[in-house]
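User: For a reading group we're discussing how well predicted structures match intuition. Take C-type lectin domain-containing protein. Before you show the prediction, I'll give you the sequence so everyone sees exactly what went in.
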Amino acid sequence: MLIESWSRIRGLKLGGLWIGGVRINNTFVWASHDNGYIPMSWFHWRSGEPTWNEQETCVLIKDARAEWYDAGCSTNLPFICNK
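Assistant: Thanks. Here is the predicted 3D structure of C-type lectin domain-containing protein, as structure tokens, for the group to look at:
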């Protein structure tokens, strides 16, 4: 699903998309629509990620491979989500 979604908008050259992952107490979880969290049951990190930098606690994708990167949550990027 992520790769298909990325392929549709990659021409916009956005620099990345937030995918709803966030690090809480050194554990990555999905942020849910009701302000709760859902444990991640799978991961698709790019090699070398996550970096565990204290300032990088949110998860984004940058390319059609949809590999995950951790990044600072204040970076202004669009997001995709699946209900």
